[in-house]
């Protein structure tokens, strides 16, 4: 069997991520509904505005950790202006602290994460981790679930997980594009950059995924492109393609 180079995304591919953000957003909404009681503000209004501000921030700042807490503050300030309610420095500080709590959770691995990685590793493939975010935050997650045993020093972290960065990574690491795969849940940051770089891609959709991760496939794949329901399907999908 020809050895493959396999890059895995981290968040919501190998470990849970969105559910922690959703939990903290719900706490933010509860605070806003308390502070703006009597103004007619709804949960849907708050979530829609926060998502709009957060998505705009990603396009500018990438996955910098300050972006998410600041989306709470900017949402709060938008409604303060809209309803002519004074901005409280104490409330702003409270929201920044709340937003940062999302990075303190001990993440939970997706089912059969270890088994999937063991299968690929034991088949002789080279495993790499390619994730977006802050280095210290992402490395904490990696250590918390023991992923360093699979990836060791083959870990790439960037705040801007773009097509350009993917292509640079391919060139700098001198990966054989015909035998390289990207595995992830995001059309935006995993699948499209992979297909534009001319490598294989496997998409693992996540229910109720973050809007930023959704996208449209705008390129004809040069190699393989599969969509599978879970991590467990990844080894057989790759091996079936190799043995065609």
UniProtKB/TrEMBL annotation:
<dbReference type="InterPro" id="IPR023198">
    <property type="entry name" value="PGP-like_dom2"/>
</dbReference>
<dbReference type="GO" id="GO:0006281">
    <property type="term" value="P:DNA repair"/>
</dbReference>
<dbReference type="Pfam" id="PF00702">
    <property type="entry name" value="Hydrolase"/>
</dbReference>
<dbReference type="InterPro" id="IPR050155">
    <property type="entry name" value="HAD-like_hydrolase_sf"/>
</dbReference>
<dbReference type="GO" id="GO:0008967">
    <property type="term" value="F:phosphoglycolate phosphatase activity"/>
</dbReference>
<dbReference type="GO" id="GO:0005829">
    <property type="term" value="C:cytosol"/>
</dbReference>
<keyword id="KW-0378">Hydrolase</keyword>
<dbReference type="InterPro" id="IPR036412">
    <property type="entry name" value="HAD-like_sf"/>
</dbReference>
<dbReference type="InterPro" id="IPR023214">
    <property type="entry name" value="HAD_sf"/>
</dbReference>
<protein>
    <submittedName>
        <fullName>HAD family hydrolase</fullName>
    </submittedName>
</protein>
């Amino acid at each position: 069997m020809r050895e493959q180079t396999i890059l895995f995304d981290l968040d919501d591919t190998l470990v849970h991520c969105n559910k922690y953000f959703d939990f903290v957003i719900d706490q933010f909404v509860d605070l806003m509904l308390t502070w703006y009681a009597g103004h007619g503000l709804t949960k849907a209004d708050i979530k829609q505005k926060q998502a709009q501000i957060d998505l705009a921030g990603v396009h500018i700042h990438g996955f910098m950790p300050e972006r998410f807490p600041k989306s709470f503050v900017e949402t709060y300030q938008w409604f303060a202006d809209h309803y002519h309610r004074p901005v409280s420095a104490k409330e702003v500080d409270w929201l920044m602290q709340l937003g940062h709590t999302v990075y303190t959770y001990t993440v939970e691995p997706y089912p059969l994460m270890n088994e999937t990685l063991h299968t690929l590793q034991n088949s002789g493939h080279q495993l790499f981790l390619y994730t977006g975010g802050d280095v210290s935050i992402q490395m904490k997650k990696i250590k918390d679930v023991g992923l360093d045993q699979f990836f060791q020093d083959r870990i790439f972290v960037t705040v801007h997980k773009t097509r350009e960065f993917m292509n640079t990574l391919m060139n700098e690491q001198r990966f054989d594009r015909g035998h390289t795969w990207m595995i992830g849940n995001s059309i935006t940051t995993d699948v499209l950059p992979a297909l534009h770089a001319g490598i294989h891609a496997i998409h693992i959709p996540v229910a109720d995924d973050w809007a930023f991760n959704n996208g449209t496939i705008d390129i004809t794949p040069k190699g393989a492109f599969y969509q599978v329901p879970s991590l467990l399907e990844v080894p057989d999908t790759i091996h079936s393609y190799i043995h065609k």
